[in-house]
């Protein structure tokens, strides 16, 4: 299942978050270990510039998103601990948006 979340970024923390995401790209082996622990197939992050400030868009594909988030939340992997710390420092508030369209192909 695809799970997409949105959160405002503290404007003064945007460059720090960009640097962390670039570092995370260079730590693919650790990130894959984390994904395996979570049961997550894929994840992507985007930064959007908006009139109200920068927004993080995070997309994750997992069989069970609740299980994936729970595993990530209790993970002791260095990459996950750093990721949680960076997000706590950089993100302001979550934006609760419902999809305007959704279609799932159960045969896929």
Structural notes for this entry:
The protein contains four helices and four strands. The protein has 108 residues and is α+β, with helices and mostly antiparallel strands. α2 (28-38) packs across α3. The longest helix has 13 residues, at 78-90.
Kindly list the characteristics that best describe this protein:
4-stranded antiparallel β-sheet, Alpha-Beta Plaits, alpha+beta, 108 residues
Give a nutshell description of this structure.
The protein is of the alpha+beta class and 108 residues long. 43% of the residues lie in helices and 28% in strands.
Strand and helix layout:
Blueprint: E1 2-9, H1 14-25, H2 28-38, E2 40-48, E3 55-62, H3 65-74, H4 78-90, E4 91-95
Antiparallel strand pairs: 1-3, 1-4, 2-3
Helix pairs in contact: 1-4, 2-3
Q: Can you tell me the number of structural domains?
A: 1
- Which sheet architecture does the biggest sheet show? 4 strands, antiparallel
Shape call: globular
> Helix count, per DSSP?
4
| Estimated structural class | alpha+beta
Overall CATH class: Alpha Beta
Strand content: 25-35%
Number of strands: 4
Task: Using the CA coordinates, give the radius of gyration.
Answer: 14 Å
- Low-confidence segments, given as residue ranges, are none
In sequence order, what are the helices and strands, one letter per element? EHHEEHHE
Termini distance? 11 Å
Order of the strands making up the biggest sheet:
2-3-1-4
Instruction: Examine the secondary-structure arrangement and name the CATH architecture.
Output: 2-Layer Sandwich
CATH names the topology as Alpha-Beta Plaits
Helix content: 40-55%
